[in-house]
Amino acid sequence: MVAAIIGLARTLGLVPLAEGIETPEQLRFLTERGCPLGQGFHFSPPVPADQIADLHRRLSLGWAA
């Protein structure tokens, strides 16, 4: 099912984004099937909207979150 959805997105000229990635195994499964974008607890717990810019800045500079 996941591979079909990723394939459909690509056929439509879209870039698939997976939500709810929680483990390295899930991330590997998705990237191996051509899903280049994702979000979920594997990357970060939920962040209040007013803190997103600061988190992005710190991560871009290589600082720990």
Order of helical and strand elements:
HEHEH
- Mean pLDDT reading: 92
Count of beta strands: 2
Broad shape: elongated
Strand content: 5-15%
Low-confidence stretches: none
Classify the secondary structure makeup into a structural class: mainly alpha
Fraction in helix: 40-55%
Characterize the structure shown.
- By secondary structure, this protein is mostly helical.
- It has one domain (2-60).
- The chain has helices at residues 2-11, 24-32, 52-60, and strands at 17-18, 37-38.
- Strands 1-2 form a two-stranded parallel sheet.
- Helix 2 (24-32) links the parallel strand 1 (17-18) and strand 2.
- It is elongated and about 35 Å long.
Question: Could you give a quick summary of the protein structure above?
Answer:
The protein is mainly alpha-helical.
Structure keywords:
mainly alpha; 65 residues; elongated; 2 strands; 3 helices; 43% helix; two-stranded parallel sheet
Secondary-structure blueprint:
Elements: H1 2-11, E1 17-18, H2 24-32, E2 37-38, H3 52-60
Parallel strand pairs: 1-2
